């Protein structure tokens, strides 16, 4: 098959486009960070949370989260005596400015900080039609902003309500577990600033991480275990009314 | 012998199929990013792109490298467990260039009350006050030194 002038003209632009990808290659990952050496999760100690909202503010500042949207938020629960199935939950502005007003009288009141559970069997990644959200090999669920179509399917699939559509980029967004920090050896912004140590980043693959001792010696739960999502955010001292 | 009279049609058809296949391979090569499928059904390069974001919170270890006086003061009180940027806000830019980026002055009536304003949802062991009764409108740092909040002697307050 001779290459005619016409055919060459057709093939050249195609080859030029392809060459761009060859040259681009893979961007370099953080030095000294090996994807296979980690399995990230988080420990939430409800008995320590004071609902100050410092984590919510820090998250917004660290990750440029638009106003009115939250990658992490703090809920205040009010459980009236025996009504475990009907808790009253509030989270004004995601608890960003703390809770200065008193909850309803009587019953039990407590705070529950929430964020993406970085599920091992994440429903959100299973429904993504284009492979824009995925479970990274280190257990963090991430979003590829360049690939996301903004179809919102993942937002519906998440049983924890952790995702939203960024109104500026029109792509799905959620907690990345401060991926740009943990790959540099820092802790997440929320864990860094938590004044009572109610939130702690945990590396489940690191045998020296205190999380293992904590999990052995405490009654720890995950949110919605019946969904079998393999949630990796563990809650200590969580009341049965938490949804 | 006209058995293969119509082979030309077949050759043309085969040529069309081969061309379509080539077009598919070329287009696929052009459109699918190199790192797609590196770890799974997604663009592997997206991991490094997510990790490339600059940090806003420097981390308390970075602060402590310079502000050793504050570290010593904090060690004497309960606020030793509170990271610098919990109150002072994100200051990675200050850590990069301490001269030009300065932390803002904090309003203790806002910063302290977020944690210490009494609320029945807070753990009972956590120190809480009803600000209006406790200080009567005075700013917290009138009496308390935030880095070492417990008041023991008059000398503590600087």
Short précis:
Chain A has 243 residues and is α+β, with helices and mostly antiparallel strands.
Instruction: List low-confidence stretches of chain A.
Output: 25-29
Most extensive interface, residues per chain?
Answer: A-B, 68 and 47 residues
Report Rg of chain B.
33 Å
Percent strand of chain A = 15-25%
State the CATH architecture of the largest domain in chain A: 2-Layer Sandwich
**What is the CA–CA distance across the termini of chain B?**
113 Å
- CA-based shape of chain B: rod-shaped
Count of extended strands of chain B:
0
Total number of domains of chain A:
2
**CATH fold-level assignment of the largest domain in chain A:** Alpha-Beta Plaits
What class do helices, strands and sheet pairing of chain A give?
alpha+beta
- Oligomer, anyone? heterodimer
The percentage of residues in β strands of chain B lies in: under 5%
- Element string of chain A (H = helix, E = strand): HEHEEEHEEHEEHHEHEE
> Rough shape of chain A?
elongated
- What average pLDDT do the residues of chain B reach? 91
Percentage of residues assigned to helices of chain B: 40-55%
Largest sheet of chain A: 4 strands, mixed
First-last Cα distance of chain A: 67 Å
Account of the protein in words:
The complex is a heterodimer of chains A (243) and B (158). With 243 residues, chain A is an alpha+beta fold. Chain A has 2 domains: 37-117 and 176-236, 2-Layer Sandwich (Alpha-Beta Plaits); 123-172, Alpha-Beta Plaits (2-Layer Sandwich). Chain A has helices at 5-24, 54-63, 123-127, 153-157, 179-182, 189-193, 211-217; strands at residues 40-45, 72-79, 88-90, 108-115, 133-135, 141-143, 164-165, 172-173, 199-203, 220-221, 233-236. In chain A, the strands form 4 sheets. Chain A has a 4-stranded mixed beta sheet with strand order 9-1-11-10. Chain A has a 3-stranded antiparallel beta sheet with strand order 3-2-4, covered by helices on one side. The longest helix of chain A is centred in the N-terminal third of the chain and has 20 residues, at 5-24. Chain A is elongated. In chain A, 43% of the residues are buried. With 158 residues, chain B is an all-alpha fold. Chain B has 3 domains: 7-51, no CATH class; 54-104, no CATH class; 105-158, no CATH class. Chain B is built from 8 helices and no strands. Chain B has helices at 7-31, 45-51, 60-66, 68-75, 84-88, 92-96, 108-116, 131-135. The longest helix of chain B is centred in the N-terminal third of the chain and has 25 residues, at 7-31. The mean pLDDT of chain B is 91. The chains are: A alpha+beta (243), B mainly alpha (158). At the A-B interface, helix 1, helix 2, strand 2, strand 4 and strand 5 of A face helix 1, helix 2 and helix 7 of B.
């Amino acid at each position: 098959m001779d290459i005619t002038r016409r055919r060459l003209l057709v093939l050249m632009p195609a080859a030029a486009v392809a060459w761009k990808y060859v040259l681009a290659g893979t961007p370099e990952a953080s030095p000294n960070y090996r994807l296979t050496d980690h399995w990230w999760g988080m420990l939430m100690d409800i008995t320590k949370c004071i609902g100050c909202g410092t984590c919510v503010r820090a998250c917004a500042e660290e990750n440029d989260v638009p106003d009115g949207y939250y990658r992490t938020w703090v809920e205040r629960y009010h459980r009236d005596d025996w009504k475990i199935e009907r808790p009253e939950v509030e989270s004004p502005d995601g608890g960003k400015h703390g809770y200065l007003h008193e909850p309803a009288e009587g019953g039990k009141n407590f705070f529950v900080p929430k964020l993406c559970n970085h599920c091992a069997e994440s429903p959100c990644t299973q429904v993504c039609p284009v492979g824009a959200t995925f479970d990274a090999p280190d257990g963090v669920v991430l979003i590829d902003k360049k690939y996301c179509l903004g179809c919102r399917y993942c937002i519906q699939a998440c049983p924890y309500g952790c995702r939203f559509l960024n109104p500026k980029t029109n792509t799905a967004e959620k907690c990345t577990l401060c991926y740009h920090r943990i790959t540099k050896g820092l802790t997440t912004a929320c864990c860094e600033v938590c004044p009572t140590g109610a939130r702690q980043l945990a590396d489940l693959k690191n045998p020296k991480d205190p999380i293992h001792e904590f999990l052995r010696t405490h009654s720890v739960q995950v949110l919605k275990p019946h969904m079998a999502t393999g949630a990796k955010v563990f809650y200590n001292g969580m009341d049965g009314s938490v949804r | 012998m006209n058995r293969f009279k119509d082979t030309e049609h077949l050759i043309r058809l085969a040529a069309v199929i081969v061309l379509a296949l080539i077009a598919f391979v070329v287009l696929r090569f052009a459109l699918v990013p190199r790192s797609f499928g590196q770890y799974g059904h997604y663009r592997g390069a997206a991991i490094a792109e997510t990790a490339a974001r600059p940090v806003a919170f420097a981390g308390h270890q970075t602060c402590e490298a310079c502000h050793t006086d504050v570290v010593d003061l904090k060690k004497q009180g309960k606020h030793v467990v509170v990271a610098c940027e919990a109150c002072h806000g994100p200051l990675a830019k200050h850590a990069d260039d301490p001269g030009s980026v300065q932390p803002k002055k904090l309003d203790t009536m806002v910063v302290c009350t977020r944690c210490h304003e009494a609320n029945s949802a807070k753990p009972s062991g956590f120190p809480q006050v009803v600000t209006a009764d406790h200080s009567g409108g005075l700013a917290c740092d009138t009496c308390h030194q935030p880095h070492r909040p417990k008041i023991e002697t008059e000398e503590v307050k600087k």
